[in-house]
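G., the chain you wanted modeled:
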Amino acid sequence: MLRTITQFAGRVLPTRVVHAHCDIPCGIYDPRDAIQAAQTVIRMTELIEGLGAPSSVADHNSFVRYVQVKEEHAEKAKHDILIIWTDYFKPEHLAAHPDLHTKVWEACKLASYVKQNVDMAKALEFKAALEQIGEAFAETKK
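Predicted structure as tokens:
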């Protein structure tokens, strides 16, 4: 009976999956997750560069997996830092760190770049940009 009601309700009022940070706001923000994701981008870039041109099925498999993980973690870092930017930082934080908007924008641009390319210098720059935002974040907690 309950199953029938649930099925009927699903047809009448269809639902969709929604993903979000808490938006309560919960007050739990931490740029370390984004920095760790950027470190994963660096490691995957190392592995891709070390693999060279894939010459076997196993190499192709590893290559695809490395690229997938690199792109997922670049996107995760970008998402995490945007949540902190939009939900945590306030006008008084911007007053104390007037270049914060530019730093976040540049970090997000780097995230897109390292997703699309295999470039160790940019991967390192991406992590450094997130660390700078993390430093500003830490100063707001004092």
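The two ends are 56 Å apart (CA to CA).

Shout if anything looks off.
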